Amino acid sequence: MVEKKNVLIYPIILHPEDKGYSVEIPDVAGGIWTQGEDMKDAVIMAEDAIGIALADQNEFPEPSELTDIESKTDEIKILVTVDIEEYRRNNPKTIRKNVTVPEYLVKLGKENGINFSQVLTEALKNKLDI
Length: 130
Description:
The protein is an alpha+beta fold and 130 residues long. The protein folds into two domains: 7-90, Double Stranded RNA Binding Domain (2-Layer Sandwich); 94-130, no CATH class. It is 34% helix and 22% strand. It has helices at residues 39-54, 84-90, 103-111, 116-127; strands spanning 7-16, 21-25, 32-36, 76-83. Strands 3-2-1-4 form a four-stranded antiparallel beta sheet. It is elongated, with a radius of gyration of 20 Å. This is HicB-like antitoxin of toxin-antitoxin system domain-containing protein.
């Protein structure tokens, strides 16, 4: 089996409501909550909440064992996965960064219609193997 280096797996608890589920994610950011209109929506919302909470981090909280999580009879405990690198690629947050490059490269780049932000982003991804 091929192991993906940035796949996170966390337990969640689905709490049935009159309509849909509230979702508890106990191991992320001290415990966070979301909700979904049905089970599928609840799981998708949990994955998104984990991605939002952890996208800017490089170290991730340890997940609890599913068997160690207490729940009531009507609550559902499951594991969800989030590929944090894929999440970052699909939900990019950009920031402005001031860089210094030789003047002749700026001139040549402009003359050739180079998108400097795109080139820097591609070079960083290549350098970081992502």
